[in-house]
Amino acid sequence: MKFNERVLEEAENQDNPLCERLTFASIYQSNLDEFYMVRVGSLVDQMFLSKDIRENKTNMTPKEQLEAVLSRTRKLNRKRDVIYEEIMDSLKEYGVQMLNFHKIENVEYYTQIGTGNYNEKTARLYTDISLMTADPKIGTEAAQVFQALAMGETVEDMDHLLVAQNKVLAMIDAEIEHAKAGEPSYIGLKMNSQEVFLQQAYANAVTEGKEQ
């Protein structure tokens, strides 16, 4: 923690170039993240396994060390926030600033949707299709999809884009029903990888007599 405080002091030092100060602030945060994952994580384990044992350097129990770490972190993070805000304010003079996309009005979307990544190795096997559009309805939904992916979440439904876990599966189920009724049916899929749920749905369709 003392070493990381020294890193934070370099971020605070106005004699350093702005970009270097920003780098030091980033190093402070990455150091803190690793410290919590490794050292603090082990202290939590020790607190449950050997809570009364005192560490030979600090003469503190795991719980006492955790409390000291949390107290010190809160103090350093308050200092970090002030330093970071000051750095970002200084960067505005050079036209660099962070934008809150939720506060931006009159957004124009230019969206590209394609069936592949235009790989030269596969260009002779099949043709990828691409759509370039400024349609705000498609752009808004595409943005929502990527925001959800960034948060590790899924999008339940869309009006203009197909969501794999519902509409695609429903389309496969519809082809199964066509096959059962003796009607023409076909499933064609092009992808780089298959999610487990899609593999299972496709396997179910094949057992119903689908053409691969």
List keywords for this structure.
6 helices, 55% helix, two-stranded antiparallel sheet, 212 residues, mainly alpha
Topology:
Blueprint: H1 2-12, H2 18-49, H3 62-91, E1 111-114, E2 130-133, H4 136-150, H5 164-180, H6 196-207
Antiparallel strand pairs: 1-2
Structure description:
The chain has 212 residues and is mainly alpha-helical. 55% of the residues lie in helices and 4% in strands. It has 6 helices and 2 strands; from the N terminus they run αααββααα. It has a two-stranded antiparallel sheet. α5 runs parallel beside α6. The longest helix has 32 residues, at 18-49. The chain is extended and about 80 Å long.
Beta-strand residue percentage: under 5%
Strand order of the main beta sheet, please?
1-2
Rounded to an integer in angstroms, the radius of gyration calculated over CA atoms is 27 Å
Average pLDDT, all residues: 83
* Structural category: mainly alpha
Distance between the termini: 59 Å
The level of helicity is: 55-70%
- The poorly predicted ranges are none
What composes the largest sheet?
A: 2 strands, antiparallel
What pattern of helices and strands is seen along the backbone? Answer: HHHEEHHH
